């Protein structure tokens, strides 16, 4: 596949509201979109984590991921020696993943709508927690059945440098600073772009961490 991801007018019908910065065709940063809701979101994260603790998955290759993860919603993203997949149950508790808090579902829906994606109803929310030494290497999100739906991500806590690549692993990457309250919507031709987190900004004596919520229509 050789789509010209960041060429001019790649789709022609890309939604483009005035208050969003386009990162690429179909991908938008909504700066501060969740800022007024950060306290509620954090309280709801804490509620999910109390039921389904953050943990470091193993990659299929056997490496412990530096990002700690948990899930809420109908299905959750899981990684172990078997591979990457979505599952209805938390492998630690053997219970279903906690329900998606209304504050999460509403925010994800509203952000998608603000960028022209109608009727976004995510069934999965991955909660990522980054300490200062955590990284997420360049990857594609391709474990979802519904690749036509966008992904919505919400940043909380410490700022981070997001890596935004192209459709091929070797394509050059841009660095985008994501701050607490920033919401990003990735769809259309940008849905399968390579991306990652290069670094989290903060001082080592502080206890602070970064959280990211990633909303997907996974199945
Ligand atoms: C661009 N998380 O969990 S969210 C992930 O900040 C993930 O925790 C990062 O990448 C984080 O898979 C980045 C932003 C994101 C999510 C999905 C994308 C960007 C994306 C899918 C396609 C293109
Ligand atoms: Fe990703």
From TrEMBL:
GO biological process terms on file: oxidative RNA demethylation
GO MF entries: broad specificity oxidative DNA demethylase activity; ferrous iron binding; oxidative RNA demethylase activity
Alphabetized InterPro entries for the sequence: Alkb (IPR004574), AlkB-like (IPR027450), AlkB-like_sf (IPR037151), Oxoglu/Fe-dep_dioxygenase_dom (IPR005123)
Gene3D superfamilies from the UniProt entry: Alpha-ketoglutarate-dependent dioxygenase AlkB-like
Residues binding 2-oxoglutarate: 128-130, 210-216
Keywords: Dioxygenase, Iron, Membrane, Metal-binding, Oxidoreductase, Transmembrane, Transmembrane helix
Bias (Basic and acidic residues) ranges: 1-11
Pfam families: 2OG-FeII_Oxy_2
Cofactor binding notes: Binds 1 Fe(2+) ion per subunit.
Binding site for Fe cation: 139, 141, 195
Gene Ontology CC: one annotated term: cytoplasm
Leader sequence segment: none
Region (Disordered): 1-22
SUPFAM superfamilies according to UniProt: Clavaminate synthase-like
Domain Fe2OG dioxygenase: 121-219
Binding site for substrate: 77, 84-86, 143, 169
TM segment ranges: 147-167
Cofactor: Fe(2+)
PANTHER family registered for this protein in UniProt: ALKYLATED DNA REPAIR PROTEIN ALKB-RELATED, NUCLEIC ACID DIOXYGENASE ALKBH1
Protein name: Alpha-ketoglutarate-dependent dioxygenase AlkB
Organism: Pandoraea faecigallinarum
């Amino acid at each position: 596949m050789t789509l010209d991801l960041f060429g001019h007018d790649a789709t022609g019908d890309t939604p483009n509201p005035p208050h969003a910065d386009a990162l690429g065709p179909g991908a938008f940063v909504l700066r501060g979109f969740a800022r007024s809701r950060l306290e509620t979101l954090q309280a709801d994260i804490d509620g999910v984590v109390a039921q389904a603790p953050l943990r470091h998955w193993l990659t299929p290759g056997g490496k412990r991921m530096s990002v700690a993860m948990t899930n809420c919603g109908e299905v959750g993203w899981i990684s172990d020696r078997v591979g990457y997949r979505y599952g209805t149950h938390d492998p630690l508790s053997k219970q279903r993943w906690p329900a998606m808090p209304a504050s999460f579902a509403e925010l994800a829906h509203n952000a998608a709508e603000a960028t022209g994606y109608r009727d976004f109803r995510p069934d999965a929310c991955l909660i990522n927690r980054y300490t200062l030494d955590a990284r997420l290497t360049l990857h594609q999100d391709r474990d979802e059945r519904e690749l036509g739906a966008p992904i919505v991500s919400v940043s909380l806590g410490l700022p981070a440098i997001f890596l935004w690549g192209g459709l091929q692993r070797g394509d050059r990457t841009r660095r985008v600073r994501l701050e607490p309250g920033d919401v990003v919507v990735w769809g259309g031709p940008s849905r399968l772009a390579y991306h990652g987190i290069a670094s989290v900004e903060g001082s080592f004596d502080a206890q602070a961490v970064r959280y990211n919520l990633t909303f997907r229509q996974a199945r």
